[in-house]
Structures are given as structure tokens and as C-alpha cells.
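Session log. Operator J.P. requested a structure for one protein chain; no other inputs attached. Running the standard single-chain path with C-alpha cell output.
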Amino acid sequence: MVRRVPLSVGGYVLAGGMSSRMGRDKAQLELAGKPLVLHAVTKLRRVCSDVQILSSRAELERFAPLVRDMREGCGPLAGLEAGLGHSWHEWNLFMPVDMPFFPSAFLDNWVRTVVAREKRGARVAMFTVDGVPQPLFCMLHRDVVLFVHEAMLREEFKVFPVLESAGKELAARQGVLLGVAFFNLPWNEDSEFSASPGTGDGESWWTVTEAQQKAKKLWFANLNTPEEFAEAEKHLEALDT
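Structure written below.
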């Protein structure tokens, strides 16, 4: 079987949240017989050469090595800071633990696209879904480290303004358009995606399945509540992990 080689990209699962709306640690909630954290780790290992879990929960270490926040109680920006501080890669992919339906084929295509845009000036990449920014699912270049660190020191913990500000400054430094340095891709249910793995006998996750297309509304969905988790259980055929 032909195999696609993961990129030299750091992969980080954001799993440090309190899961207050779920009522228990959602990282270990099982969907189709596997904990959500394993679904996320599996996806990242398909496209990233190095995968870690951003969490202080020792019980998650059986799924991948842990990277703990340098500052407790500061929200997800602290997770980004910890990941960027830990990584030796030029690019790092951050993915929430509760997004099990995002297709691996789409993830692979997007990550390769972002890395290829580096020479043009790309430094931050994320999605805006139905007009709502999704900054916790992002690709960050190592040039962003200082911006995140300084925001933490100023106690400015909202992720999107920090990434947007970094994009603006890095665009100005490089003399490129904001949309180049800050690659914020708009997305809705009418958006189209197709991946062609090329010739040969490829792996099953290389293409988006019909079941995944039908469940497109769930691709960017975060499973935050018992009700959302119950709805997710109705669409197990759309999982690729």
C-alpha cells in the first residue's frame, strides 16, 4: 500500500480544558469505542511527524506524550504558548480534542497547503466557519511564539485577537498582504473540498467519503455538551479514525 509521509510539523492536541459543560473529562469520552483524545491523536499522526497532548492529566499520557502549560488557569492561549515553546518545528498544528469529525483528508491537504505558502509569507492559518473565527484549530509558524508569549505577559488571553495581531505585524514586517501572512479561510456547509491522493493503492482516509460529506455540518463541531455528544453518536459512519 502507498503511504503518505507525515510532514515535519509539530502536532498538538488541546486537551487542557475543564469540560465544565460536559460534566466530565471529555478527552476520555468514548465515541465508536475510542476516547476523543485518541481520535485526535490518530488524525494528527497521519499528517504530523511529532504529536503531543497539551494537558496536565497524567492519565492521557498513554495516548501520546504530554506537554503541560507553563501557566495554570490562563485558558487555551497558555496551551498554544506551551506547544510553541516545546516545539522545534517551523510549523505547528493545534487541534481541539473534541473535533472528531474533521476529515483526515481535508486536514492533510490543508496542512500541506499552509506549509507550501510559507515562502510567500504565511505565518498563521485558521478557519472562520459561518462567520465565526475558529482560532483554536490553527497552524502557527515559530515566528508567532513571541507574540503569544508577550500577550500572556500582558494577561491578554483571548486567542483570536492575539493571532490576528501577530498576522498583521508579520505581514507588515514581510511587506505582504494581511491575507497572505494571516491565512484565514472562510468555510460554510456550501464550501467544497475534494482530495485526490494520486494513483496507486492509497489509505482509506485519503479521500472524503460520502458519509463524511453528508455530515459536513459536524466537521468543525466541538462536542461540548451531553446533547452534542448524543448527536455525534448518530453519525459514527462519518468518522475516519
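Operator note: The domain at 7-190+204-235 is CATH 3.90.550.10 (Spore Coat Polysaccharide Biosynthesis Protein SpsA; Chain A).
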